[in-house]
Amino acid sequence: MALRISGLASGMDTETMVKELMTAHRIPLDKITQKKQYTEWQRDDYRTVNRSLNDFRNLTNDSMLRQSTFIKKTVTSSAPDDVSVKNINSTSDFSGKINVEKLAESATMQSKDRVLASEANLKDILPATADDFIISSINADGTLEEYNVVITEGKSTMQSVLDDINKNSGVNAFFDSFTGKIAFTAKYSGDIKDDTVEPPTYGSEIEFIGNEANFAFLKVEVNNTVAAKNGSGTKGQNAMFTYNGLTTERQSNTFQISGFEISLKQANQKEITFSSAPDVDSILGSVTKFVDEYNKLIEDLNTQIRETKYKDYQPLTEKEKESLSEEQIKKWDEKATSGTLKNDSIITSVLNKMRSAMSSAVGKSPNSISLSQLGITTSSNYLENGKLTIDETKLREAISEDPNQVYELFAAGGETDSDKGIARRLTKALEDARKSITAKAGSESATVNNNFVLGRLLDGYDNQVKRFEDRLATMESRYWKQFTSMEKAIQQANSQSTYLAGMFSTGS
Predict the structure, then answer these.
(1) Each residue's pLDDT tens digit, 161-187
(2) 311-314: Cβ within 8 A, 24+ apart
(3) pTM of structure
(4) Residue ranges covered by each domain of the chain
(5) Could you tell me the fold of the domain covering 108-237?
């Protein structure tokens, strides 16, 4: 850095003079910085809008576009402690009568004798005679599946074998320390029955396959059929019941018929009735929440495009903030950040599309349906900018009468917009708007500015700032060089003056 001489000869406050000169020259730089700050605010406000659009789109997808929202039903049973019924995916109401003769049961087996001597431990190494064997067991679909239990000489213990069986096979194994025996239970209920022959043949639901010496340490029969005959096991059993006059069976006590799930709990040989009806309160709640969130969204969007823009309130520079209190800065920024999205074309467009989607009928006349038929209409107060109101009584009636028609109003598919449901039109409008906003303001995860419009503008401001700061540094250096030269010249003149004065004094 060049030597700077500050007013030593001239007596002038050159440092203050340079500072004031540079302050004047920095005004264009401050304007660039202010433009950059305003652009950052605008970018952030766009991204906030994008989050709001995304949240509402997700709500629409997760509720109004899911048939499960509209097929919720309340189911009554004359004996809910014996038989419970719930809807899974039935779109129509259902009713029936059921008489339970037998519940489904899982096959079991137990060790015939103690598997360990009283002084032995589950973690003791298995005898050398133990070797690999296979467990065959009933599967969820009523077929058999096999699992190979591997015995490693010098490593496998009773505990490791039981852990392996429990984790990987279709059987649960439990060691009872009181009796010293192991109880085996099939993970799936039901029996193995071949109905393709007459009379039907029955198999075993649990079977140990291999040389009996390999699994002799378990002290079990070869299968649960033999064990049942010898009093150390039971056969698996299907649930047997009569449904609307038809006697039938199921492998499990819980099963589905025509889109609803039946769970058998007691076998009591009595007729149990059940029926369903739309869960009006639940469906009403979903529709009401959707409408409420729609109203919040359009209120927020309208606020954004109608917000006052205060042109006289530019972003504060760091120098300006130094002379203001925190409260003054806060109040200034409230006006400076206002109106960043005023009259924005993207937001105006999506608002128009959303209103159109909500107000247009779905389907072709005379079979078309609209929100007004459900009691959902646009507010007559123009100041509310298209908010929706709900006639709850009318909406309840529509849901109770035909919840599937309500679903179709929101989620119907089709090739044209007029055939598509309201929620499908909305999500399309929201997705288009989000793409446009992302192209202009980027996404939350954007790390490179040159991928979106405002990002490229911010990069441009950064380049301008850098170039301007370089110019200011050069300019400040030039001012100091000039003032330093002036000081040196004055100092030299003063020295000469002093010298001449001394000369004249000597001559006299």
Answers:
(1) 999 999 999 999 999 989 999 999 999
(2) 313/338, 314/34, 314/38
(3) 0.74
(4) 60-67+282-449, 73-102+240-278, 108-237
(5) Alpha-Beta Plaits (3.30.70)
